[in-house]
From TrEMBL:
Keyword NAD included in the entry's annotation: yes
Main function: Catalyzes the reversible oxidation of 3-phospho-D-glycerate to 3-phosphonooxypyruvate, the first step of the phosphorylated L-serine biosynthesis pathway. Also catalyzes the reversible oxidation of 2-hydroxyglutarate to 2-oxoglutarate.
Biological or metabolic pathway of the protein: Amino-acid biosynthesis; L-serine biosynthesis; L-serine from 3-phospho-D-glycerate: step 1/3
Span of domain D-isomer specific 2-hydroxyacid dehydrogenase catalytic: 4-312
Protein name: D-3-phosphoglycerate dehydrogenase
Coiled-coil regions listed: none
Keywords: Amino-acid biosynthesis, NAD, Oxidoreductase, Serine biosynthesis
Family the UniProt entry places it in: Belongs to the D-isomer specific 2-hydroxyacid dehydrogenase family.
Organism this protein belongs to: Azospirillum oleiclasticum
Catalyzed reactions per annotation: (R)-2-hydroxyglutarate + NAD(+) = 2-oxoglutarate + NADH + H(+); (2R)-3-phosphoglycerate + NAD(+) = 3-phosphooxypyruvate + NADH + H(+)
NCBIfam families: PGDH
Length: 525
């Protein structure tokens, strides 16, 4: 039974779902990195929010870990490349807290416009400073949205409802989508120059880090107000402080900080600054949604292999997972076969999917195939990291799909181009779910791949089969199945022999010395 550790504060729905699905679940929040490292090796899944840092060291200790589930959006607290390298799927819940976070941004904008936190504190203190607080109206004002994805577009929608004008800067926002949303697409400088309020909703990337710095702030309207509910690091906090001091920026509302948990910060104590402790996603509704989603997604993956919302793997629906299972086995075998016979470095891999299989999601199949191909050549390859390893090694991987198959209702043909030559192998499913090899280098040969096999290339001459049988028999090796293939009489032939006993080096040498044998390989599956 798989085991999951919940290491951040998740709604109890997550535990209920894991347990309903038969997954043993422990909840241990607030662990220090060394405490987490000490126990994480015992778990197949790790469910987190933003507090747990899933570093390289934690992943190295997580020897059984198969999946990290982020109940939320940002995965900047997870070392995704390290997880990928170790074959750990990282998944998030990309929509569960979007509305709630957008509402927090709007709440902060309204609070900034009317100075609500300071007025609240003053009133609680019995001061009744009615003349001290003079707000600004939102109607007719311009809101600049930096990053108009899920959350940014909800913020834009709500702001339009408040009768604001919305200008959006997002290189990936199409003009059609901007028109649908009712926002004006603009470049960053235009947004900065026109906005009365600016709200940030991008992930933290190399392009967005410090996107609001002293130079950007200088391009803003004097008296602009800035809201950041996305990630600390998008705004240079020192530059913002200087702009607040000079009056260039009238106010700022921050939910996220460069260093979190933010126990001290250069912006703390400034009257014009509203701060919340990363509460964007903290509503009952959003936390129920993300906990439920992450638990379902992780349970599906651990129990059925279905993959949804993974950052480092193509999706596989629960409906597709059982259909893909026999093809996964076939692809693993085809890749494994080629990986054991190639002799020089691989330049390119082409996978042709024909017939029924062409209608399926083939990306996971290619990933499994690459795993099979690379496993004999290097250590620690799995279907999560195999595509990355192939890319890093400059192996060009391509897929071709054809709805029609010539001789088989479903066919997967793999061509590996090495420095010196190309090799092709093809396989199909017999009876809907039994993997079968059907051709090697265009030579037809129908064979089930079993744990120990001899792959022999030979000249098609009389006497070969008898001599091979004698050699195996003399060594006490029983033939379980024997498959021959040739293009035409007398030309090169292929022989695949499944054997019941181990084949040692001297026996292999004896077989390769037999007349007519061109090459012999011992294959393991
Ligand atoms: N405060 C919180 O509690 C909280 C809650 C949820 C999400 N978030 C954060 O909010 C951010 C946005 O989340 P989302 O769900 O809207 O993500 P999203 O992926 O749907 O949208 C992000 C948008 O940013 C745009 N973008 C990327 N690079 C850009 C660039 N250089 N300049 C301008 N735009 C760029 C993308 O095109 C995309 O449209 C994430 O960083 C997420 O972690 C914070
Ligand atoms: O990226 C997110 O989903 C938010 O930052 C929410 O983080 P949290 O789950 O720690 O509140």
């Amino acid at each position: 039974m798989p085991k999951v550790l919940i290491s951040d504060s998740l709604s109890p729905r997550a535990v209920e779902i894991f347990r309903e699905r038969g997954i043993e679940t422990d909840v241990r929040t607030g662990l220090k990195p060394d405490e987490l490292a000490a126990i994480v090796g015992g778990y197949d899944g790790l469910a987190i929010r933003s507090a747990t840092k899933v570093t390289k060291d934690i992943l190295a200790a997580a020897t059984n870990l198969k999946v990290v589930g982020r109940a939320g959006i940002g995965v900047d607290n997870v070392d995704v490349p390290a997880a990928t390298a170790r074959g750990v799927v990282v998944m998030n819940t990309p929509f569960g807290n979007s509305i709630t976070t957008a509402e927090h941004a709007i709440a902060l904008m309204v609070a900034l416009a009317r100075d609500i936190p300071t007025a609240n504190a003053s009133t609680h203190a019995g001061k009744w400073e009615k003349n001290r607080f003079m707000g600004v109206e939102l109607t007719g004002k311009t809101l600049g949205v930096i990053g108009c994805g899920n959350i940014g577009s909800i913020v834009a929608d709500r702001a339009l409802g408040l009768k604001m004008k919305v200008v959006a800067f997002d290189p990936f926002l199409t003009p059609e989508r901007a028109a649908d949303l009712g926002v004006e697409k603009a470049d960053l400088d235009t947004l900065l120059a026109r906005s009365d309020f600016i709200t940030l909703h991008t992930p933290l990337t190399d392009q967005t880090r410090n996107i609001i710095d002293a130079a950007a702030l200088a391009k803003c309207k004097r008296g602009v107000r800035i809201i950041n509910c996305a990630r600390g690091g998008l705004v240079v906090e020192e530059d913002l402080k200087a702009a607040l001091d000079s009056g260039q920026v009238a106010g700022a509302a921050f939910d996220v900080f460069l260093v979190e948990p933010a126990k001290t910060n250069i912006l703390f104590g400034m009257e014009q600054v509203i701060c919340t402790p990363h509460l964007g996603a903290s509503t009952t509704e959003a936390q129920e949604k993300v906990a439920l989603q992450v638990a379902e997604q992780m349970a599906d993956y651990l129990l059925t292999g279905a993959i949804v919302n993974a950052i480092n793997m193509p999706s596989v629906s629960a409906e597709d997972a059982p259909k893909l299972t026999p093809y996964m086995a076939l692809c693993g075998q085809l890749g494994g076969f080629l990986g054991q016979v190639v002799r020089s470095s691989i330049r390119a891999v082409t996978v042709e999917y024909e017939g029924d299989v062409a209608d399926l999601n083939t990306r996971p199949l290619t990933a499994v195939l690459l795993k099979g191909l690379l496993t004999p050549l290097m250590e620690s390859v799995n279907m999560v990291n195999a595509p990355t390893i192939a890319r890093e090694r400059d192996i060009k991987v391509s897929e071709v799909k054809r709805g029609e198959a010539a001789d088989y209702h479903t066919l997967i043909k793999v061509t590996v181009q090495t420095e010196s030559r190309s090799r092709t192998i093809a396989g199909s499913l017999f009876g809907g779910d039994k993997p079968r090899l059907v051709a090697i280098d265009e030579v037809p040969v129908e064979a089930e791949l079993t744990p120990t096999m001899l792959y022999i290339r030979n000249e098609d001459k009389p006497g070969f089969i008898g001599r091979l049988g004698v050699a195996l028999g003399d060594a006490g090796v029983n033939i379980a199945s024997f498959h021959l293939g040739r293009v035409a009489p007398g030309v090169d032939a292929v022989c695949l022999v499944s054997v019941d006993q181990p084949v040692d080096g001297p026996l292999l040498e004896r077989i390769s010395a037999l007349p007519s044998v061109v090459r012999v390989e011992l294959l393991r599956f």
